[in-house]
Amino acid sequence: MLGEGEVQQVAAACARAFRGVDTVTGQALPETELVERVRWLASLVEGLASGVVRGHWSGPDLARLASGVDAAGVSLPSQAWMALRRLGWRTKTPAGVYVPDRVGRIAEEQAGRVLRSAWWRAQVVDAVLVTWPADPVRRTEAEWEALRAALPDGGSGAVASVLRARTKQIADFRRVRGRFPAGVTELEPTPGVGGQVVLAAVDRQLATLTRCPEDPHRYAALTVKLPVRPNPASRKDWHEVHVRFRLPDHIPAHAALCAPTLRVRESRLLLDVPYAVSVPKPARTGHRVAVAFDWGLNTLLTGGTLRLTDEPQPRALTDGQPLFLRVNGALAKADRLRLNGERISARIDRLQTLVNSRRARGLRPDPWVVAKLAVLEQERVRVASRRSRLNAGLARAAARFMVDHAVAAGATVIYLEDLRDMEARGKGRTLNLRLSQTVRGQIVTHTRHQAAASRIAVVIVPPRGTSKYCPRCLTAFRHHKAPDDRTSGWAWATCPNPACGYGTGRDNAAWQRIGARGLSHQTKTSPDRTSSTLVVRSVVAALDRPVQYQRADRTKSGPTLRRRPVPGKRHQAPAPPASTPGGKRPAGRHPTHPTHRTQRRRRQQEPTTIGTPARHQPDGARLGAGFHRHAHTTPTRGQPSHLPGDPATPGSPRKPKPI
Question: Rounded to an integer, what distance in angstroms lies between the CA atom of residue 85 and that of residue 62?
């Protein structure tokens, strides 16, 4: 039951089942037999759902389903399987096979979801065809306005990159076939439904999910009817199977469990268990303290804290202390996996060409080539899975980084820039790929989920002009190379205003502009219709105000915390020469001292000509500063920091600052 000011948040967690019990025969089912029965059920569902999709993959049928009313003018239900049955689009069971009605519901639900999701793509394709530009490569401003007007909801849900991709796809179709496609049903092949079983479409007669009474916090039990043979011929071929599995640790004990989705991946039975929890509704206005972050390439996130003053015209104050999340090593690993996947795909294409050429001539393909193709296909799947896991871990770590800093700063909102329209063009093949394959969408999703539990809102602001103008006086920046790194790109910005002269990195200036824009546009914040994310759709020039810089109060209010010595780290300052009069000898030994570690290493290496290098140990991974060996983050501060004149937050715990 939701309380006042609360909303329901639904998430999904993946669990694995290892065994089950056939309640009809009492037989214990090991993982192999349990996976085999679920695979038979998934195969039946996929075949039934594919038949519905193939039979109604046409423009008129998509429009009829998307209209929301049946032939009598009555509104269609929100459940996909009920809507299809109202329209008369039922599944057709093969002859000699018995399928329960609830299994037919599952197939119709999956087919209805696929057909409903295609309607938005159909509208985009139709809008592009109606407003086809004179030059498909580059549209004029008038052509862009006409395209936006033809899109549903004024084009609010379609980004420029999607529209350009659709235009290129239609242009390729026209070049090959010499005409325009009739719609998305001709432009795209018939979509698949996937080998999964969505149990959310059935009732208790087919499947039930409950928490185990002996340990409700850690274990759950699923009872589902599964076939005992690939082609069940009667009702006797469907047995109830009791599956007990362990819930993931991050599912709260008070969460309400929903019907799971069954999947078979690499001979493993996976259960996607949705769960619902009540969280405070994020506030749209009234924020006084905020953290803002800017996206980057090498430094994934750069951000900081801002506050509003209590003046009649509030101003944004910042102490200018940036926060960094550097994941160069993780991104480099993702790039290596991408290159490996591309090489494997190229080899598969070459071998597939050989197989197709022999089949076209009526010859039998070489068995060695066929076996090699199967091995390469499996390897490509493994590489893609590793990339997915790495991106998911990176997204979770970035979200936790932002939420932890927001909690430490006492902020009630996190501001991010909207980079859905960001396209990598004209920057070289390597840089274009690195920019295009970032996981910004996953990071925003995880941030919203984690921030909701801490009563922190996530707001997306427009990115235009955030790194172009000075945050102190709103004068256009002059970009050039950094003074301490002349080999890098144009990452440094300097204000040409003589009264300002502010110089900093582009990312450091961007997060200040993002935070100030979000705080000043709180009255313009509204929830998005599709994702329910709080967004600022447009920028009002009168509300854009400069950021005021003010140093934080660093007055000592207690004893200095003793820091733990870092293993392998010691004072590196050499001792002064013996002839130097006066002065105190610093800690450590002079490099020429016989007991210095460099001298010991030299003596150890004398018998050999080449020394063995020590294994690389990054400081960040050794000190627990990230989820990856090469992920480095700015540590969170022990308590919320306050600028001069800000009241202290009562009851804020003081935690030791991590080293």
Answer: 15
